[in-house]
Write a structure and sequence with these properties.
- The protein is α+β, with helices and mostly antiparallel strands and 565 residues long.
- The protein is built from 16 helices and 18 strands.
- A hairpin with a 2-residue loop joins strand 16 and strand 17.
- The longest helix has 33 residues.
- It is globular.
- The chain starts with a helix and ends in a 5-residue tail after the last strand.
Length: 565
């Protein structure tokens, strides 16, 4: 009896050589010492792959279920010679710095500002210039506008805008834009109006935007980056007579620097606008009175405008201010009032429904191409993972159906494995590989046992699938280049880039603030309240829809969204 016990002890402590498979790498004859436990096994894996122990997800068909747990006893696990073990997890990679590291404390203030190591500089208010400061900060984060102005050397509002950007970028503290304000008030006297007490009056940010874009257009239209590619919107207007079909339609085009969101709400309003899209559509449609040559008199015509060409940036103005007559007042001059109604706006805006039929056709082609590319990429990933995980099975669709069939039997194992593996840190490839490995480790019986049940369930579910909405399919030879510096294959999606808000009851009073996204796609924004700069998040921006005496969106800037790579 003692001899058999000694023989069994030697057998239990025998080293086992396994095959370790990790991503595209295969390690043969990896020695596993059961006496060292799971921790020792993971140390061996780390030396081979540089995958930290806490990131290692180890799976082996027929040896253990799901991922190998740290408390497992390797002596009790039937790990055989040549057993294949699959590893998932990312290795530690220490990349060499691409440039010499320089610490913040060793940088000059100018270097810190240029590197973004400190809060960016704002603009000092030089006497009710918040309308100007807020708008300038929005343009500051449009690199294409800055690039277009680089070739200008004359002294005017646009070139002074460029030099102001440079001062802001290099400064560690807010700057007073003396030269810019002096040029503005000298060449555009409406911005130099003063009160009877001699103080400069508050101005309308939209009027300043119009003045600034006019100056920019004069400069950049002489460069390879004309204004229409930056902020210009080409509108196609179609007029049709309501009173006779004999009158031919009138079609014309015009370029504008913004689209207007009409706000009609409150008591007595025929249309209530709650969302920016509704207000934009209202502003692009309506009725006008115009002479009809067929009727030989004035008649009512339907007016419908649509966007015929898209720029890199879009400006949407919320039409909050209107002129109200005051016939009972002493001077009968009237007053400029403000609509306080809350109007929501999205973080991502789709221009498709506001475009001409031809532009919609081009956008449909690009969307079809984007969907096709995504499906091909997804199919390639699944096929690759399928081939790696189950040799001999070439159909990713077949693998997916096998795993779906096994789902009822392995659901508990999936849940526990996801907890151990840390699913929130897994990418798409790892998640798919985990699912495949779990199926493999559970064996084939689970899939067979539930096949008939799943099949009947699929038949029952099929009848509940809603009918697909028919979308026109365009014949294409690849993605369309819409021009204007937009990426080839652009789908018409824009991301909220900057906002100018106004707080107060009149355009001639109150206060303006600029809000700018730090980088495309970021959740962090800079709030420019003149020379006071703070950091906010996207959720704070989406609360600026208005309603009451608070900061509310007046000018919204959207930037084209990059194609997904």
């Amino acid at each position: 009896g003692g001899f058999k016990s000694h023989q069994l002890s030697i057998q239990l402590h025998k080293m086992v050589k396994i095959t370790l498979k990790w991503s595209k790498s295969v390690y043969e004859n990896v020695e596993v010492d059961p006496t060292q436990g799971v921790s020792g096994f993971k140390d061996t894996v780390y030396k081979l792959t540089a995958v930290p122990k806490d990131r290692q997800k180890l799976m082996a068909k027929g040896a253990w279920t799901g991922t190998l747990k740290d408390e497992a006893d390797l002596n009790a696990i039937p790990l055989q010679e040549g057993h294949q073990v699959m590893l998932m997890g990312s290795a530690e990679v220490v990349a060499a710095p691409k440039e010499t590291v320089k610490f913040v404390e060793d940088m000059s203030v100018e270097e810190q500002a240029l590197k973004g190591a400190i809060i960016p500089a704002g603009l000092v208010n030089l006497g009710n210039t918040c309308y100007m400061n807020a708008t300038v900060e929005c343009f500051r984060y449009m690199p294409e506008v800055r690039e277009a102005l680089n070739g200008s050397h004359s002294i005017n509002l646009a070139t002074l805008l460029k030099s102001t950007f440079g001062e802001l970028d290099r400064s560690g503290a807010s700057i007073p834009p003396y030269s810019f304000v002096h040029n503005l008030r000298t060449n555009f006297p409406q911005f130099a109006e003063t009160t009877p007490q001699g103080r400069f009056m508050q101005q309308d940010a939209e009027e300043f935007y119009n003045t600034l874009t006019t100056s920019i257009q004069r400069e950049v239209d002489r460069t390879p980056i004309p204004f229409n590619t930056l902020l210009g919107v080409e509108l196609e207007e179609r007029l049709t007579c309501q009173e006779t079909d004999q009158e031919p339609a009138v079609v014309k085009r015009e370029s504008v620097n913004k689209l207007v969101c009409n706000i009609q709400g409150g008591s007595g309003a025929s249309v209530n606008i709650d969302h920016m899209f509704e207000g934009l559509k209202l502003g692009l449609e309506g009725s006008i009175e115009k002479f009809s040559s067929v009727l030989n008199r004035n008649a009512l015509w339907n007016r419908k405008q649509r966007v015929a060409s898209l720029p890199r940036y879009l400006c949407f103005q919320f039409m909050r201010f209107f002129w109200k007559a005051t016939p009972e007042s002493r001077d009968h001059t009237g007053v400029k009032c403000k609509i306080l109604r809350a109007v929501t706006f999205p973080e991502t805006f789709d221009m498709y429904d506001l475009c001409t039929e031809e532009l919609q056709r081009q956008l449909r082609i690009n969307r079809q191409e984007a969907d096709k590319a995504f499906e091909q990429e997804l199919a390639a990933k699944r096929a690759k993972n399928s081939a790696d995980a189950t040799p001999g099975t070439s159909s990713s669709a077949n693998l997916a159906s096998q795993f779906a069939a096994a789902a009822p039997a392995v659901s508990a194992a999936v849940s526990s494995a996801m907890e151990v593996a840390g699913a929130e840190d897994m990418d798409e490839d790892e998640a798919l590989a985990l699912a495949q490995a779990l199926q493999m480790s559970m064996g084939e019986d689970a899939g067979d046992a539930s096949a008939s049940e799943t099949t009947s369930g699929e038949k029952a579910d099929a009848s509940a699938v809603p009918a697909k909405v028919e979308v026109p399919v365009e014949v294409s030879n690849g993605p369309v280049d819409l021009g204007n510096g937009l990426p080839v294959g652009f789908t018409g999606q824009y991301e909220l880039h900057a906002v100018v808000t106004h707080k107060g009851r009149s355009a001639d009073s109150g206060h303006y603030i600029g809000w700018v996204r730090q980088t495309p796609g970021s959740s962090f924004w800079w709030c420019y309240n003149d020379d006071v700069v703070t950091e906010v998040r996207t959720e704070d921006i989406l609360k600026l829809g208005g309603g009451g005496d608070r900061d509310m969106a007046y000018l919204n800037f959207y930037r084209f969204r990059e194609n997904k790579k």
